[in-house]
Amino acid sequence: MARKDKKQTAALGEEFAKFAGSVTGIAMLALMLIFPLFISSQSYSNILRAKYKFFWILAVVMAGLCLLAGLLWFFTDRMENRGEGARKFAAHVRETGWKKLLSAGDKGLLVFIAIALISTLTSEYLYESFWGNEGRYSGFFLLALYTVMYFLVSRFFHFKQWYLDAFLTAATLAGLFGITDYFRMDIMGYKVGVPLETADIFTSTFGNINTFTAFLGMSLAVAAGLFAVEKDWRRQLWYFLHLAVASAALITSQSDNGYLAAAALFISLPFFLFGTRTGARRYLVILAVFAAAAAWVGWVNRTMPDTVIGLAGIGGAVTTLPGLPALAALLWLAAGGWYLYDRKKGRTGALAGAASSGRTSALGAGGKSALGDSSSPADPAAADRLGPLPRRIWKWAMILIAAAMVCMFVDANLLGNGDRYGSLANFLVFDDQWGNLRGFAWRITFKDYLEEFTPLQRVFGYGPDTFGIITTTFNRMEMHYATGQIYDSAHNAYIHYFATIGPIGLGGYLVFLAGSLAAMAKHWRERPALLALFCAVLAYSAQAMVNIDLPIVTPFMWAFVAMGIACVRRNGE
């Protein structure tokens, strides 16, 4: 009888987990495939509200169904098994301990949402803090939904790579719409009757170009990550096409934010890929695709300036670089020549051979791999391995470049030598005009924090998404005379959280991001698709330094983190 009860208890738990896995799977598919293309009407006027409503309904339905299934499991367990399942769960928690059940990222997130709740309850603007209706709908309600989605997906979701294929399918369609908008074709008819100067800053199914670029940065990262680790040539071609469209769409999106995402991608990939010849070759191809896309956009801008919107800022500088077409051709020749040389030497199938021999690693760590091309030498993993030297060289090169940039920044700002850097001074000299007046927004944020906030507000912030209330309360006239507009966001996600949720809440958020990225980086060899998720989260986090968290695009970042941790946890189990 006792054995029968144990079987019934196990079956109940398995049924609940299976149901929750199905619910989270359907929700993630809707988010990956439908949400990018969703827009409620032939207009951009209500796109923020429409996509916000889509996401919160999706998240609430997912959470509600899982909650109902959990309650059903609990009462069924009590009725049929006298609560044996609940007792076993409680015993497991006591035996393991909450600290071991929660990762570093989980703990950081709990601190973040707890401080956000305290910030909401202690805010002078409780209603606005909860709903975020005076900002971009990123109040406590939305932050709580992100948190619930993360824990449900990270615990129950069964990751399959085709979820990322679905995301790339929708992202490529959105990217193509964006490219046609760059040519002012407006094939969706969303800009009819809109003044040209306004129409040009709205694009695709995401509205504002900065928002669209945040999405494209993740699309580029996912396509590059999957292309880098894919072993089947047909799927390589599939990801290559997505990579090409994402590169062209990001460049034509007009926003400089995307180059932060691209830089984070290009800087991080060698730490994963330079362990093998195959990985290094794939990296050259990724660079070649991006360079070729930039060269193409530069050619279009020169040959048909009256047809396209045109580029300024970093985009204008990149697409007009002297010798850019030659650089793209050189990268293609280097990648192709290296491949032909390795094929002649019998090295191109090294990783495929390693996989077939039953080892358990990828990209130069030895063992089962996600890469490989054709042949199968005697020791394929050893033949493909480059060793630690290339990654060490890359690491020190990045350290030296970072140190040089810090020295230049100090020299340009603290020592007042900005003039010596020519056009680079626009990026090095930090003042109110920096980053299209982002410098002004950041300066008044810290000024208000130090001079206007109460001691309690300095700890817990002014209230989630109340930045617009802060600036209109303390900086209305200064904003009017300096910029002629109202700032309802700091245009930096981290500074925004610092002011609205406080330094402790921001610290929790940073621990959440860093802990999640570290977990994915640690386990990507066992599940190579984790590299794509890692790159997507990193790319979003990089561009967030000059951009806004919005319910139009931020849900993807939270979903990628949750999917990555679900993959890590399942691999560990």
Any overview of this molecule?
The model is unreliable at 350-377 (pLDDT under 50). The chain is mostly helical. Strand 1 and strand 2 form a beta hairpin. It is built from 27 helices and two strands.
Concise summary:
The chain crosses the membrane at residues 20-39, 54-75, 109-127, 139-157, 164-185, 205-229, 236-253, 259-276, 283-301, 321-341, 393-415, 494-517, 529-546, 552-568. This protein has helices at residues 2-34, 47-81, 84-96, 98-101, 104-122, 126-131, 140-156, 162-182, 196-199, 209-229, 233-252, 257-273, 277-303, 313-319, 324-344, 350-356, 380-384, 389-413, 425-428, 434-451, 455-460, 467-474, 476-482, 493-500, 502-523, 530-543, 554-572, and strands spanning 202-203, 207-208.
Shape: globular
Q: Taking all residues together, what is the mean pLDDT?
A: 89
Taken in chain order, the helices and strands follow as: HHHHHHHHHEEHHHHHHHHHHHHHHHHHH
- Using only C-alpha atoms, the radius of gyration works out to 25 Å
Note the main sheet: 2 strands, antiparallel
- The strand count comes to 2
Q: Kindly report the spatial arrangement of strands forming the biggest sheet.
A: 1-2
Question: Helix share of residues?
Answer: over 70%
Strand content: under 5%
Decide which structural class fits the backbone: mainly alpha
Unreliable segments (pLDDT under 50, ≥5 consecutive)? 350-377
Question: Roughly how many Å apart are the termini?
Answer: 29 Å
Number of helices: 27
What's the helix and strand layout?
Elements: H1 2-34, H2 47-81, H3 84-96, H4 98-101, H5 104-122, H6 126-131, H7 140-156, H8 162-182, H9 196-199, E1 202-203, E2 207-208, H10 209-229, H11 233-252, H12 257-273, H13 277-303, H14 313-319, H15 324-344, H16 350-356, H17 380-384, H18 389-413, H19 425-428, H20 434-451, H21 455-460, H22 467-474, H23 476-482, H24 493-500, H25 502-523, H26 530-543, H27 554-572
Antiparallel strand pairs: 1-2
